[in-house]
Recover the amino acids of this structure.
């Protein structure tokens, strides 16, 4: 196990190093001057040259890359060009919102996708199977931005015309609620403060963006669960379990689903990593103050330090999630051991 973690640590450092270099070089190759965007259209040439020199953007790319790698090695991701705030502080401020939204979306995807896949497998080539597979295809095909706007229009804007406030149009919490931020997860902090109305309000803000973000992972999880269950239900040990007179629950869950979990967990891990990597469209539509929306604004402003920091955070999150998935393999399948 120690050797496994040592190998993963080396890979982790190598991946982050490669991501840092590639991100820095590609951003530097993009045409345009971030100082021009920062100072505006009417900035004088003297001001542009002065700020460019202050930000060391007039130095060769390899010199700036070496300085940036040295900063990252010391845990310093630089300072945002837009508001001169440390990048680490901004990412730490916005990342909990992305984590909360991504986890809520994955809970929705798992709670609906796994049972739907099991039902489709148990009713292979029957109307229920057709319904689930068609729904999964539809879930993958619907554009996220269209679904988000439709949910906002139908469940947030239109009900207000008849005096119903079903769901808020955006944000994480109504301004009338105030409680200490211990974890920066609105739902958890509201529970810790014992403020149940605030908890209900935070949950209502979470519903529409979580459903929007969960659509594609839910469809993929359902399809993978269906495929895995169909394969397992044809095996000899499942037929033997049925012949012994075991109940449907024991056959499906204990002997079927348990042995089909490896590919399902793999898909869930990959989708979780992608969601934590920044749900840019969803966060923008619902005004969700997460890293995805922050990265979009940074790209619009050519805020290179913030873009590099966001990319590095996305890569770190994806690698960590994949490590957790690998560890879950050993917990789910006793034949897998990391020696």
């Amino acid at each position: 196990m120690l050797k496994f973690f040592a190998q993963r640590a080396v890979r982790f450092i190598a991946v982050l190093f490669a991501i840092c270099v590639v991100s820095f070089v590609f951003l530097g190759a993009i045409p345009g001057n971030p100082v021009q965007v920062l100072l505006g259209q009417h900035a004088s040439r003297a001001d542009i040259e002065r700020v460019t020199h202050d930000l060391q953007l007039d130095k060769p790319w390899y010199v700036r890359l070496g300085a940036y790698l040295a900063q990252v090695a010391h845990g310093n991701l630089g300072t945002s060009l837009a508001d001169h705030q440390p990048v680490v502080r901004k990412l730490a401020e916005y990342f909990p919102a992305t984590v909360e939204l991504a986890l809520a979306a994955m809970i929705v995807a798992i709670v609906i996708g796994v049972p739907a896949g099991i039902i489709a497998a148990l009713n292979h080539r029957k109307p229920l199977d057709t319904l689930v597979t068609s729904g999964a295809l539809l879930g993958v095909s619907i554009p996220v931005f269209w679904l988000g706007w439709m949910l906002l229009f139908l469940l947030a804007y239109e009900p207000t015309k008849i005096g119903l406030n079903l769901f808020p149009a955006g944000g994480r919490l109504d301004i009338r609620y105030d409680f200490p931020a211990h974890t920066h997860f609105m739902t958890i902090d509201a529970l810790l403060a014992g403020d149940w109305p605030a908890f209900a309000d935070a949950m209502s803000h979470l519903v529409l963006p979580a459903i929007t973000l969960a659509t594609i992972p839910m469809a993929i999880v359902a399809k993978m669960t269906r495929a895995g269950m169909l394969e397992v239900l044809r095996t000899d040990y499942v037929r033997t379990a049925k012949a012994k007179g075991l109940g449907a629950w024991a056959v499906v869950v204990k002997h079927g689903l348990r042995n089909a979990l490896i590919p399902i967990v793999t898909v869930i891990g990959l989708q979780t990593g992608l969601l934590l990597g920044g749900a840019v469209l969803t966060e923008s539509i619902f005004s969700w103050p997460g890293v995805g929306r922050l990265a979009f604004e940074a790209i619009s402003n050519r805020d290179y330090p913030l873009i590099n920091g966001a990319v590095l955070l996305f890569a770190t999150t994806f690698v960590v999630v994949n490590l957790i998935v690998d560890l879950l393999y050993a917990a789910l399948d006793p034949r897998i051991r990391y020696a």
Q: What stands out?
A: The chain has a mean pLDDT of 84. The chain is about 75% helix and 0% strand.
